[in-house]
Specification:
The longest helix is centred in the C-terminal third of the chain and has 20 residues. By secondary structure, the protein is an all-alpha fold.
């Protein structure tokens, strides 16, 4: 399961590298850091945490373009796949 979160983190790292805007880059890095915690097992995300992160990524996707937008979209898809695999409390 954490493979999906690792993929999302990797996609977000690439998105941050290609971002034209410091604001977009900052928002991406914040979410990337959260996924790094999830992958290491420091925090186990539940539906609410994932929804919060997905909402942030959807906003970033609206501001991004080109490669950045594509990588954010790929991360969103990976997180949505992971979210479907966890039980809801």
């Amino acid at each position: 399961m954490t493979e999906q979160l690792q993929q999302a983190r990797d996609d977000l790292e690439e998105a941050a590298k290609s971002a034209d805007s410091d604001d977009v880059r900052s928002d991406i890095r914040e979410t990337t850091d959260a996924f790094a915690d999830y992958v290491r097992g420091d925090t186990t995300p539940d539906h609410a945490l994932l929804d919060e992160r997905l909402n942030a990524l959807r906003q970033v996707r609206e501001w991004a373009d080109g490669t950045t937008e594509g990588k954010v979209e790929s991360a969103i898809e990976a997180v949505e796949d992971y979210r479907e695999s966890i039980e809801q409390a």
